[in-house]
Please model this.
Amino acid sequence: MALSALVLFVCFGVVYSQILCEDGYCRTYSFEVGCTAAAQHCSINNATHSGMWLMSPTTCNCCDYCLPFIPEGEHCSLGGPGTGTTVGRCGDGLTCVAEQDGNFCRRMKSDCHAAQDEYDARHESGQIGALEQRPACDGKGRYRHFYCVPTQTCFCQSDEGERLFGEVLHQGAATERNMHCGCSRLHHKIQKSISPGLKIPVVGLRCTSDGNFNPVQCLNNECYCVDKITGVIKGDEKIDLEVESISELSCYDETLDLFPSNTGSPPYNYTSPCLEDMKEMVDYLEESERDGYNVDYSSSVPECMPDATYGRVVKTFTGSKICVDEHGKPIEGYEAMPGTKEYEEMNCNCALTTLLMVNLPEKPVCCSNGNFRRVQCRRGACRCVDDAGRQVGAESGNVADLPCYVGEEWKIC
Model:
């Protein structure tokens, strides 16, 4: 079995039909039938009146249509026989709940909303830290797609708030506007849906270092241009690597290609050292399996990140683990030995953050295995952080007052 590859694209489009909706039909429809005025919510779009523009449920979608968002505490419909026509839905973060006096829009119960409530309670009691951020939830009560640590970096996160691949320096509103993490989050969902018993690794979508979609995606030898935010294929342009170089694609950006291989003669490729090592090891293990040997794919095949670079936690020939950069080079000598707690818990999150902050004066302190030290200090005050580097609780001028303080050895993790 060859190295498996999986590239998913979700395409949305509008089909235009001249059978019923010929040119001028809507002008005639508007004149003869008339359009009901759309709800004002979409035009107002404030705290009490908001909505979503949708295609009108009229013939040929000729009229404007606004679906109102019902505020918290207002009546709503759960649907079903005899409930009448629904003219709106509960707003973002709300759900329709059946109560004794009827159905009402109430705040969804979710882990993210619970984290917001916990934050708000501590805020009222003055227990919020200077670098601590209120959890941001999306319209379905899930964690927002990224999290920013002030003065440090922004990184992608899952619906559950787990730190994912994709991290950039935090440089204000511009960073937050451009960090959509769609590729990183889709890659995470794909990996979660794959059976843990699958021995051959699945190579999915290629992302950029910020978690967005790489504008170039390939399936086997055919490569396409996609939208970096949605991953949707753009236009009809495509190339065949058997005869054309990847640089022939109009969307190809050489600054995003960490391992260019566009010179020479065909056939060309669009790969990376990690993907090549993965393929070579899979081929070797499959050959060994055919020869009757028992092989272990899970511990032998190297892990590649969503941008096709090496996994950031790598096992060495001596059995230890080290932190590496996108080129597979060790970072600052971070290492952990087998049989230790540091080895089992190693994630290299701090090592990766400090690598991005190499030219900044106030970098976080890392443990010897590249993880964040639980106690971080800055400008005379210390604070607790989690394994993603997010502040937890208020800071203190006395490190011994922190809940994460573990005695005098706190400086060495």
